[in-house]
């Protein structure tokens, strides 16, 4: 189990596993690019990038190698975020919706009647 602190609140994650146990956060590891398929970037509407010489075997992030050097700390943070949303996403979404509703409800322009108490404006 792993605890993460988000916005001053502690969330317990049960499914997070360290992607690179024993490595420092500043260590760099070679990973798959993740932005392309085998070094060929295919964007929305099947846009391809080329390398300026007409070759289509290219990807901006990995230079067509499908390998990227990434910091272990970045990969851990990505894995934590992914686990946090997977485990607590429903709670986070429900609380955000409740907050938005409360703000909309509390906004004076959304109220039909605004009540002003006698001492509201003459506090010293
Ligand atoms: Zn790539």
- Content of β-strand: 15-25%
For the sheet with most strands, the description reads:
2 strands, antiparallel
pLDDT < 50 runs, ≥5 residues: none
What is the chain-wise order of helices and strands?
A: EEEEH
What coarse outline follows from CA principal-axis ratios? Answer: flat
Bound molecules: zinc ion
Structural class: alpha+beta
Description:
This protein is α+β, with helices and mostly antiparallel strands. It has one domain (2-107). It contains 1 helix and 4 strands; from the N terminus they run E-E-E-E-H. It has one helix spanning 72-106, and strands spanning 2-6, 9-13, 28-32, 67-71. The strands form 2 sheets. Strands 1-2 form a two-stranded antiparallel sheet. Strand 1 (2-6) and strand 2 form a beta hairpin. The model has no long low-confidence stretch (mean pLDDT 83). The structure holds zinc ion. Zinc ion binds next to loops.
